[in-house]
Amino acid sequence: MASVVRGIFKSIKEKGIGNFVRELREEGYVSCLADGNLLQTKIHNIGATLVGVDKFGNKYYEKLGDTQYGRHRWVEYAQKDRYNASQVPPEWHGWLHYITDHTGDELLLLKPKRYGLEHKENFSGEGDEYIYHSKGHTLNPGQRDWTRYQSWQPAKKE
Amino acid sequence: MGLGLLASRALRSSRILRSPSNGGPTYFLRTIVSTPELNNADAAAAVQGNPPPPPDLPKRNPVGGARVHFPNPDDAIEVFVDGYPVKIPKGMTVLQACEIAGVDIPRFCYHNRLSIAGNCRMCLVEVEKSPKPVASCAMPALPGMKIKTDTPIAKKAREGVMEFLLMNHPLDCPICDQGGECDLQDQSMAFGSDRGRFTEMKRSVVDKNLGPLVKTVMTRCIQCTRCVRFASEVAGVEDLGMLGRGSGEEIGTYVEKLMTSELSGNVIDICPVGALTSKPFAFKARNWELKGTESIDVTDAVGSNIRIDSRGPEVMRVVPRLNEDINEEWISDKTRFFYDGLKRQRLNDPMIRGADGRFKAVSWRDALAIVAEVMHQIKPEEIVGVAGKLSDAESMMALKDLLNKMGSNNIFCEGNGMHPNADLRSGYIMNTSISGLEKADAFLLVGTQPRVEAAMVNARIHKTVKATHAKVGYVGPAADFNYDHQHLGTGPQTLVEIAEGRHPFSSALKNAKNPVIIVGAGVFDREDKDAVFAAVDTIAKNNNVVRPDWNGLNVLLLNAAQAAALDLGLVPESDKCIDSAKFVYLMGADDVNLDKLPDDAFVVYQGHHGDRGVYRANVILPASAFTEKEGTYENTEGCAQITLPAVPTVGDARDDWKIIRALSEVAGVRLPYDSLGAIRSRIRTVAPNLLEVDERQPATFSTSLRPEVSQKVSSTPFTPAVENFYMTDAITRASKIMAQCSALLKK
Fold first, then answer.
1. What are the residues whose beta carbons fall under 8 Å from the beta carbon of A88, sequence distance 6 or more?
2. If DSSP codes are grouped into helix, strand and coil, which group holds residue A41?
3. pLDDT of res. B63
4. At residue B49, does pLDDT exceed 70?
5. Measured on CA atoms in the order B7, B13, B19, B24, is the torsion positive or negative?
6. Which residues contact B602 (CB under 8 A, 6 or more apart)?
7. Cα B590 to Cα B601: distance, rounded to the nearest angstrom
């Protein structure tokens, strides 16, 4: 506990009090006071190894040793106010769920360049424009043109 | 040990015991037939040797519901097919006898409209007292013949033939366009063996380039020679032939050459395998995905019966429908391949030309309001209506009624000329009828090139000339014929010579029993058309062309709308109406000459394609094409036929008659019909023959009632009526395939 307090004072000295408060808010130390899940993650993080950070900023931690097996990998979401499991990209999903021991950074090398789609989190309940619509769906903006004839263009006037 | 295995063991041992073992070891005999008694022909024959059961079989009907025609009742003979007695006329083949008995014999090379080749051997049947199975397509049936089509020998023969055919046939049915409608596929399922013994490499053949319409995959060819016989016998071009012998045998053009026939697409239909398929249709659809709609072709005046195969909103292909009186089972290349024009250059929104000369899409309400407003501001005699060459009878009736209600009587159909004679129906239809041409023994073609004007009529003439060596005389510009003909002259002067008996060909006409004179519809546009028709009438009178039992005086029309337009009386009041018109209603008319039209005239174009007519238009009203509507069309022989909608209309387009009906309502001169049925009852009062669908209505009065004319023929030679066979109307001009054809095939 004393080391934590010492660390806090050290960083206040380095960054100044304004920067320190802002960082405190961004890292979620403020919202964790009201959010038990986040608070527990923060407490969990103490002494754990940071395995990687994905492109969204989610942090993946691992703590071997005195942790119960099966609860030794976890994620701290980049978003502190609105987080859910679908924010984990597929390359990290396997590592996080003990499907593989390869980290997301390693698996990312296997991702096909040409047709691999960007990961999108699940926007259910966030409004129609966020929801995935199949290519034939009326609300899909990239909908296929099913017109099977070519109309005469008046601009081609002789 | 299973029962089956036991049985096969017993069978094999008995075979070894029985087989005479002619030197070679016979311990391994691999059977390819699953029924054991078929392995031994002798045993099979012995089983069949029993007296056949008395013919108490149920009455059988001929294949396809065909009727048997006995030219001479005395020549009927009786044969037995599978013990069932049938009466057939003398001279029929065994295969035809079987068909009449209701037994469909498998065949590849035999086609009932082509000569007999007898080279595929698929139609082998057993005939009693014949040592070998006989090829039924080439064997004439003899009295008392006992034909067996279902015996083990016949089955084994078919299996053997099928095995040989499949030996060199590629196994590419999944990527073959014929898949699903392939004779070889069907017959190998029905008659073939379940396995083959061929383990070597298959033969492969280089594909031939036959042009933009027919795709060839010659490795699939089974050398039935149907296409070769079709080309020489029906199409009349000696383009295709058989090269090489044995396994080196191929169909080809010998020298690299395109197939230059206007009927070449039909080889796609007669090819029993996927060797000749449609190039534009290649890999586009499977035949079981398509919806067939039985309709009528409108690209020429023949009115060929077609089936429009569509998938969803697209016309995927056009194939012929059997009609013995009109097109038999062939259609021309234009009919078969113009369909891609239906998807290009379509008018899909009503448009108004703004002050800046550009078109702007508007709603139907606005477009009709403007047309109605302008129509009321113009004097009735300055309103002109022109029906296009693809118009159906119903919309022409509606247009005529609308203009008459507005007070104008200036309405005509393009192609009929400015002063057509619609009084005598016999003066503008084909009085002999298309199938009647086969009885003719002398032809006089006046200013018509049937090969490009009406390919199916030309096919009939070719058939007649080939069968009876009928003489053909031709007056007109130098043209391409695919049968023997005499080019008598280029101008109407030659007609006068023939009429006066000074020409050598007049004796040929005089000696003919059933002479036929065919006048082309291109004559309608000539200044001296009455004199030409008078000369033709004189020839007809001198040579006894029109008799009670024979009417050989014909006019060959060019467009699908012409005959119906004349029947409905679409005749302009004055032949100068275009020059003084202030309001022109073009109903799909693209080829009418608008050069003399005053600049301030208001032009309404109602049609389905952005073609020539659109560029002068002030208002465009989008209409549906013939594949999208129901409409009556009368063909050149006076037979009314109905098209049916195969695909939905495009965009905001409407049926022609509905547009005119709506316009009449907006203009305040409401037409008294709201449905096709109501229009047809209106047509009944004008031209009742248009309601006798699918039945040719001959003309009642002969052309001898025509008034005398004092006009003299001019010396101007006849001009070709159709410049380009492949591009004659708005749809064909929009088609890419037709453009390709005219670039490659038109010399």
1. A54, A58, A75, A96
2. helix
3. 83
4. no
5. positive
6. B374, B378, B582, B583, B584, B618, B619
7. 17
pLDDT band at B421; cut points 50, 70, 90: confident
Which residues from chain B sit within 8 angstroms of residue A158, using beta carbons? 615
Contact B335, B304 (CB under 8 A): yes
Which of B682, B234, B705, B725 has the alpha carbon at shortest distance from B461? B234
* Most B CBs within 10 Å, among A149, A157, A158, to test the B interface: A149
User: Taking the mean position of all CA atoms in its chain, how far away is CA B504?
Assistant: 35
Other CB atoms within 10 A of residue B110 CB: 26
Q: How confident is the model at residue A65 (pLDDT cuts 50, 70, 90)?
A: confident
What is the predicted ipTM?
0.76
> Which has the closest alpha carbon to B270: B229, B237, B315?
B229
Distance of CA A9 to the CA centre of its chain: 30
What distance in Å separates the CA atoms of residue B242 and residue B24, rounded to the nearest whole number? 39
* Stretch A11-23: mean pLDDT: 86
B50: how many CB neighbours lie within 10 A of its CB? 7
In terms of Cα–Cα distance, which of B298, B426, B425, B387 is closest to B687?
A: B425
Neighbour tally for B150: CB within 10 Å: 13
The two tokens of residue B20 are 């005479």
Phi/psi zone of residue B65: left (φ > 0), alpha (ψ -120 to 50 degrees), beta?
left
Task: Say if residue B42's pLDDT is above 70.
Answer: no
Helices (H), B651-711: 656-667, 676-686
Residue A104 phi, psi dihedral angles, 5° rounding: -60, -35
- What is the distance of C-alpha B624 from the center of its chain? 23
A145 touches chain B (CB under 8 A): no
pLDDT digits (tens, 9 = 90+) for B352-388: 999 888 999 999 999 999 999 999 999 999 999 999 9
Chain B residues contacting A via beta carbons under 8 Å: 312-314, 342-349, 351, 357-359, 609-610, 614-615, 650-651
Which residues from chain B sit within 8 angstroms of residue A154, using beta carbons? 351, 358-359, 610
Q: What is the pLDDT of residue B64?
A: 78
| Cα distance between residue B569 and residue B421, in whole Å | 9
C-beta contacts of B502-511 below 8 A and 24+ residues apart: B505/B444, B505/B471, B505/B473, B506/B539, B506/B542, B506/B543, B508/B442, B508/B471, B508/B473, B509/B442, B509/B444, B509/B473, B509/B539, B509/B543, B509/B545, B510/B542, B510/B543, B511/B442
Can you tell me the distance from the alpha carbon of B4 to that of B41, in angstroms, rounded to the nearest whole number?
22
Residue B745 has pLDDT above 90, yes or no: no
Which positions in chain A touch B615 (Cβ < 8 Å)?
A: 157-158
Cβ neighbours of residue B175 under 8 Å, at least 6 residues apart? B283
- Per residue in A28-54, pLDDT (tens digit) is 888 888 999 999 999 999 889 999 999
Environment class of B509 (CB within 10 Å of its CB; exposed 0-12, middle 13-18, buried 19+): buried
Distance from CA of A150 to the nearest CA of B (A): 5
At residue B83, does pLDDT exceed 60?
A: yes
Say yes or no for a CB contact (<8 Å) between A151 and B651. yes
Residue range B186-202: average pLDDT?
A: 91
- Rounded to whole angstroms, the Cα distance separating B689 from B699 reads 10
Q: Which residues pair with B216 in a beta bridge?
A: B276
Task: Check CB contact under 8 Å for A151 and B348.
Answer: yes
Give the pLDDT mean for B710-731. 90
Q: Say if the Cβ atoms of A148 and B312 lie within 8 Å.
A: yes
Per-residue pLDDT tens over the stretch B222-277: 999 999 999 999 999 988 999 999 888 999 888 888 888 999 999 999 999 999 99
- Banded pLDDT at B50 (limits 50, 70, 90): low
